Amino acid sequence: MQTLLILGGGTAGTMAANKLRRELDPDAWSVTVIDKSETHLYQPGLLFVPFGVYEPERLTRPGRDVLDGGIELIVAEVAEVEPNKDRVLLADGRPVAYDVLIVATGTAPRPAETPGLDGPLWYRDAFDFYTLEGATALRDRLATWDGGRLVVFLAESVFKCPVAPLEFAFLADSFFEARGIRDRVEITYVTPLSGAFTKPKAGAFLGGLMDEKGIAVVPDFYAERVDAERKTLVAYDEREVPFDLLVAVPVNMGADLVGASGMGDADDLNYVPTDRHTLRSRDHDNVFVIGDATNLPTSKAGSVAHFEAEILTENVLHWIAGEPLAAEFDGHANCFIETGHGKAALIDFNYDTEPLPGDFPLPVLGPMRLLKETRTNHLGKLAFEWIYWHRLLSGKPLPVSTEMSMLGKRLDAAPA
Fold this sequence. Notes:
single chain; FAD/NAD(P)-binding domain; 416 residues; oxidoreductase activity; 26% strand; globular; five-stranded parallel β-sheet; Oxidoreductase; SQRD; FAD/NAD-binding_dom; FAD/NAD-bd_sf
């Protein structure tokens, strides 16, 4: 019996496990997932917790329940991988051998990487919303906050779900308007990027929405520290942004076990150097990488993990059969962007094509619209929760192409 071992039972690891369990001969291959938590978290729902749209309990299910029968789940901390011995060491010293390893250990916020961020203000006047604990604490703070200077702050440019802080700012505008205190709230978006988003057309569209909603953008801001006593962000160039309530996207890093195993990238961020097309580790032939654990130049987003899962499954099967790794990932990402007031936008792009205006998935018919606020896009975002639990995690086919399509996209059009 040979062993396929997957490190991480989040979105990417669960999809990979379920897909490959169905493809591999159960008499020849065992499939094992190791995760430190017994609970699976619906991460896209965290955005809605601070605004009281979702209750925290709605976002979690037992990790065992989202894995197909025949998959072993080990709940344990992993200390390190020994790729030259084809085995993993758990924190309690137990070894777990593998024939093929898939690293799906994700990324996580590290507030301690910005001096002062996790000090006396943390979870009092400074919060994150990328963890269930942070999103819940922020919900409780927003419920009684009477207004002032709300600053949404990006510590770095590489982090999980790059559109989420934009969505937070838009939803905050809508939330405070509904509470009747929008005129008492000054919203500022502080980013190390040169604007609201990295790509020209999406940047122009999202920057325009910021202007319409009265949200100030402070670009090119590289934070050196948080001055907790003065409640002020301080940049390396000595610019300062004061706040009354800080919503931070802390520095993101991959799992410590990646660094401890000597498998991390040159930036020491604990992401695994990965072939951008085959999804195989650049350093180890029988190791594949998926989702936020990679160092690929595409978004760290659930949709990317979904598209990668299709490619990774094919290439793992090719590798086991001794065949060339023929499937190629194109960097495809597809993300709804909540814009408040019951509307959302949608972006669809890959390594080579920036987000463009147009219709998705079909020309003219849509029904989704790219780089445009619509009610249908918002309903699509809400419907994704059902799709996630009932189709995506189980690895069942979805009516969205793994490879990005140019159908419906308009190269020369300006965003609506």
